[in-house]
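Researcher: Last one for today. Full complex below.
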Amino acid sequence: MSGELAHSLWVATLETLYMTSVAGVLVVLAGLPLGVLLVLTDRGGLWERPALNRVLGTLVNVGRSVPFIILMVAIVPLTRLLVGTTIGTTAAIVPLVVAAIPFMGRVVEQALREVDGGLVEAAIAMGSTHRRVITRVLLPEALPSLIRGTALVVISLLSYSAMAGAVGGGGLGDLAVKYGYMRFRTDVMLGCLVVLLALVQWVQWLGDGLASRFDHSRAQSARPLD
Amino acid sequence: MIELRGVGKVYAQGGREVVALQDVSLRVEPGEVFGVLGQSGAGKSTLIRCVNLLERPTSGRVRVNGKELLSMRPEELRLARQGIGMIFQHFNLFSSQTVAGNVAYPLEVAGLSKAEIRERVAELLALVGLSDKADAHPSQLSGGQKQRVGIARALAPRPRLLLSDEATSSLDPETTRAVLSLLRDINQRLGLTILLITHQMEVVKAICDSVAVLEQGRLVEQGKVVDLLARPGTRLHELCYPPFVTGESAVLRGGQRVELSLSGEHSTRPILSTLARRFDVDAHLLEGSLERVGETRVGRLLFELTGAPDAVSQALAFLRQEGLTREEAAHVG
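Model: Here's the assembly. Have a good evening.
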């Protein structure tokens, strides 16, 4: 691989990191309240609103069932409205976020549902406000699951970002298609795959490590993050 | 302290109505340990959850500390709940927080300052004997230690009432005794009123002053533990003393089988030697038990009287007159 292509690989990696991390932060910020709301409004929840719960649930299912490649094209007007353009790394962040929020919402919902209902009951019995039950009991108790779930979402974002790149977003996916596929540069293709694989491994490792660092539910769990 | 009047709870389950509680009325006096005894499925859990409105009764009234809870606004109810401690069968400790953090939680809810919280947490952990575990996580503790943390957490905001939801049911017998004596100690030293639900007769005998028996969502009996246990014919007596296993075949000597119920002063009288001296009969012990309940002793004895027929019937007449035999006492009950 020539120096120029190595440089391209480096730039593409940075673009992928940029897309994934910005999207990741936005997805967590939006997915967390969505997941909390899904749990709260459900039947038997702290803030029972069956109608709202059904609407949210349906939206999430719709969002999750649209293939990413279609979603990307479908929300072009929204992307233009928000970013001013529909091509480029920053523009790719919009569909990434829109596609991953429902996923994150379900991940958060799942994590919160794993929290023992007895803990919520105890907190209510002690006179907690709902806000306190959420911030001091539900979220801290679900933290290990939330971290593992977030790692899962970020890994999905990495793969989505490769797809977004292929249609003009830049990043490793773009490079792999333009050079590796269209110009038959197997070395570039391999380079892109190796970097993506390394990123996925790293995110998984980080997620697992952090999750067990915060998991005090089992006796010998406080393993240091090494 | 607690007054439930005509409390009922009906659940809708798959389109059908399930009655969990029906017309339950009870009074818990300040400073007493009140037990609700019942088998699983009797509605005990629902009953205790109706006292702090973790479950809202579908009918009736709930008064705690002289205040009607059902008509309270959410904010008032939250404040009222801060004055009612609760401990649970599965402890319900927050696994993400340390022991100290768990005990501090209700104090944060009550809005105490950091310094006040630190002081009170140390005080409580000393009370339950876990000062050295302040920084441990609940998963590192034994069951008995977890329940002690649960107790410390429940007592933190200085409640006047403690609700205990099968607090010893998942503990081994020895730990159960230790936790019960801690509860008794707290009840006496702090004047704390305790309402507990249990399916264990041992718990009732060990620490309860009063008891109510719950069966299929209804209270079938209510009163002082000592009184009910001393009176054959009550439900509590029946549950505590099921019929002797020893059948008729145990009467080997052709004598008269006699069952005595003992309580209070009777329990300390030399009944058997009195019979032997006064009526010239022999008493052969078959089965029996005598145990402490609160300040007194309660028990029963099964034995066989042998001797001249006249002597035996005179002895029986004496026992009846003294109100000791099961048949006679049953009329009193």
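The interface with chain B takes residues 116, 118-119, 121-129, 132, 136-137, 140-141, 143, 214, 216-219, 221-222 of chain A (CB under 8 Å). Confidence is low (pLDDT under 50) at residues 221-226 of chain A.
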